[in-house]
Amino acid sequence: MSSSLAKQTLFYATCLPFFVFFFLFDKFIFPNAGVLEPSLATVQSMIGGASGTGGSAVVAKIFSHWTSALFFIVAEVYSSASIGILFWKFANDVVGVNQAKRSVLFIVDFF
Questions:
Q1: Which residue, of 44, 47, 67, 109, has the greatest Cβ tally within 10 A?
Q2: Could you give the CA distance from residue 19 to residue 24 in angstroms, rounded to a whole number?
Q3: pLDDT digits over 38-76, tens only?
Q4: Residues 89-111 pLDDT 10s
Q5: What ranges do the domains of the chain cover?
Q6: Taking the C-alpha atoms of 71, 76, 77 and 83 in order, what is their torsion angle to the nearest 10 degrees?
Q7: Which of 81, 91, 97, 73 is nearest to 25 (CA)?
């Protein structure tokens, strides 16, 4: 994508799916979480795990609150992706190819 899109367009194309998700979460998913999320007892009966502690209980709790889990997963991926894109965009704007080659040779010689 970076070879076919401009830098600013690439940034927005990468972040747009996240913006759409956060909008949909705010307007549709979170207000209807009570309808969308199954009860803990329903999930435990589908998984077949005991209602105590352990791995199946944790999985059941996550699936019974899947909207919140999905929000936090997407938020983590968004922060990693956007910070990475901003850093490499800045690094590519500041450092030219010849200077990068010189820096790599300096680092290799240093160690």
A1: 44
A2: 9
A3: 998 888 888 876 666 778 888 889 999 999 999 999 999
A4: 777 778 777 776 666 555 555 55
A5: 7-110
A6: 140
A7: 73
